[in-house]
Write a structure and sequence with these properties.
Number of strands: 10
CATH superfamily of the largest domain: ABC transporter type 1, transmembrane domain
Largest sheet: 6 strands, mixed
Number of helices: 19
Distance between the termini: 48 Å
Strand content: 5-15%
Number of domains: 2
Length: 603
């Protein structure tokens, strides 16, 4: 089986696409920082001209005029950096979003079921934005750090004792920052994970607001939301308090050191070993010592944030964490639609969600990390059956018997553990993606209808569909009459997730979309279970219109909807217990008959 080639992406791979813009941004930022350094030094020099014995006022004025030129140049450079940031930041962010979204399409259905929605939304949307913003902040801070460093070094040269105090402050501040950021990196991962949960819950609440209101779940879900937010706030509070402890300690050391430095400066002036000009330079630039440590901390924060976000983003490309679909290289045309399972085995495996854990230590980094298995539920063992082309078949059985899993294996949403799934005698693992996807159309119990017009939803299935093809599809899907009642007809917008449509209308639109694809195999997964009797009859009529033109596979909850199928596979505990027509099973299979009676009693 051929594996998809994974992109080797890194932050630098995106920056290199716009290298001239990025280099320009860095260049103008450095020029602006250099102007700040020179501005400070020459301003100090002007002060010394005024306070020396000769009172060189004219030289001081010329120096200050030069400082004025530096200020103008600095402002121009900052304007250019802002311009370049606005021009290229969105492009870099959009490239990241697009690559991550494309990678998301490659992930297997099992991967999506293993993680919550927020896990993907944060990585695809929020993390790239955060990375680009923090990268710009880091470059700015590095320039400011260099500026403060030069100024601090300049102050250090004025007196060796004051220089030693500065060195001690810097070493203590750096040590505190090292431990603060080491702790923050761990806390940040945990906080982002809690935030993912909040995003997932919020998405679910927005999408299910009608169910929440109709079932009176507002209070209960408010409690769940509060519990999640409290959990997030508790973790966030712990992270912030850890920061506060370190920041407070660092600030105390810096401010106390600055005070001692000025006190020592006054003492040295009294001894006559420090001039008034030098003291004024130390006094006026005392804040740069504080800024040096502060900016050092900000840079460390930015690096932590960038590292956490990039690790989260690019983990989507790590198949040990987020497994992808894999396809073969065989292209096929004119598929007849024969389906066969040969000794298929499949177990549903639950994995522990460990993607946020710390990376392995150097000693273990070369050792492949195994995903921790939480539970294994065996669904099938040596399952075999065959479906003839252009026949309509159904799989029935009580909940948990494996009906939907068969459809997922048939469409390669899940991959078998053992055995083979064949289409026209070819193992589906050998088929290329286009051949497999063009062969099968799937209509789910709750099909997703996009926030577009009816026409646009249909054209997603076949972008070059003619008006005649669209008309034929909506007619065969029993949708024509409904479309005819709409003022804008096919150009009517249906809202997010088809909110303006009823359940039956969504199903019929999904069926029309499948018909437009003209796939040799069409799968219906519980397509009528949530509909009323009238809508159910419409869907049943739509399916009957397709008989003999494609291989139709139905998973049915309501047995009355599959009376006219060619063959029924009756499942019980992962095994095919019986096969036959509706009448044959009703006559000979007691369990099947009891299911039918129970269904009608419930109705």
């Amino acid at each position: 089986m051929k594996k998809n080639k994974q992109k080797k992406l890194s932050l630098m791979s995106y920056l290199s696409r716009y290298k001239f813009g990025v280099i320009g941004y860095v260049f103008f930022t450095l020029i602006a920082g250099t102007c700040t350094v020179l501005q400070t030094i020459f301003s100090a020099q002007a002060i010394s001209y005024i306070t020396d014995l000769e009172n060189n006022f004219m030289l001081a004025i010329y120096t200050m005029l030069f400082v004025g030129g530096l200020i103008i140049l600095k402002r121009v450079c900052w304007f250019l950096t802002s311009y370049l940031y606005q021009k290229y930041a969105n492009k870099i962010m959009a490239d990241m979003n697009l690559d991550l979204a494309k990678q998301a399409f490659k992930l297997s259905s099992k991967t999506y079921s293993d993680y919550d929605t927020g896990t993907f939304v944060q990585r695809i949307v929020s993390d790239p934005e955060r990375v680009v913003a923090m990268l710009a902040t880091t470059i700015d801070n590095l320039t400011d750090l260099l500026t403060s460093f030069v100024i601090v070094v300049y102050i250090t040269t004025l007196n060796v004792y004051i220089g030693l105090i500065i060195l001690a402050i810097v070493l203590i501040g750096f040590t505190l920052e090292y431990f603060r950021n080491k702790k923050k990196r761990v806390n940040r991962r945990i906080t982002r994970k809690k935030n993912d949960k909040i995003n997932s819950l919020t998405t679910e609440i927005v999408r299910s607001e009608k169910d929440i209101k109709s079932l009176g779940l507002e209070e209960k879900l408010s409690e769940v939301s509060k519990a999640n937010y409290d959990d997030y706030k508790k973790t966030s509070y712990k992270t912030e308090m850890t920061d506060i402890y370190f920041w407070s300690g660092r600030n105390f050391v810096v401010e106390l050191g600055g005070f001692l430095m000025l006190l020592l400066g006054v003492y040295f002036m009294d001894l006559g070993i420090l001039t008034l000009a030098s003291f004024m330079i130390i006094y006026s630039n005392n804040g740069n010592l504080y800024s040096f440590i502060w900016i050092l901390g900000n840079i460390a924060d930015s690096f932590v944030e960038i590292k956490v976000c990039t690790e989260r983003m690019f983990s989507l490309f790590n198949e040990e964490i987020f497994p992808c679909e894999h396809f073969g290289a065989k292209a096929v045309e004119n598929v007849k639609g024969e389906i066969e399972f040969i000794n298929v085995s499949y177990s549903y495996v639950e994995y522990a969600n460990e993607e946020e854990e710390e990376k392995p230590t150097k000693r273990k980094k070369n050792k492949k990390k195994e995903r921790k298995i939480e539970s294994v539920n065996k669904i099938f063992d040596n399952l075999s059956f065959k479906i003839e082309p252009n026949t309509t078949v159904a799989f029935v059985g009580k909940s948990g018997s494996g009906k939907t899993t068969i459809l997922n294996l048939m469409s390669k949403m899940y991959e078998v553990d053992g055995g083979e799934v064949l289409i026209d005698g070819i193992n589906i693992n050998d088929l290329d993606k286009q051949s497999l996807r063009n062969t099968i159309s799937l209509v789910n119990q709750f099909p997703y209808i996009f926030d577009m017009t009816i026409r646009e939803n249909l054209l997603l299935a076949k972008k070059d569909a003619t008006e005649e093809e669209i008309e034929s599809a909506i007619k065969r899907a029993s949708l024509k009459e409904f479309v005819g009642t709409l003022k804008k007809g096919l150009d009517t917008k249906v809202g997010e997730s088809g909110i303006k449509l009823s359940g039956g209308q969504k199903q019929r639109l999904a069926i029309a979309r499948a018909l437009l694809r003209n796939s040799p195999i069409i799968i219906f997964d519980e397509s009528t279970s949530s509909l009323d009797n009238f809508a159910q009859e419409d869907i049943k009529h739509s399916i009957d219109n397709m008989k003999g033109q494609s291989t139709i596979v139905i998973v049915a909850h309501r047995l009355s909807t599959i009376r006219n199928v060619d063959k029924i596979f009756f499942l019980d505990e992962g095994k095919i217990e019986d096969i036959g027509t509706f009448d044959e099973l009703f006559e000979n299979n007691v369990k099947f008959k009891n299911m039918f009676y129970a269904e009608n009693l419930e109705s």
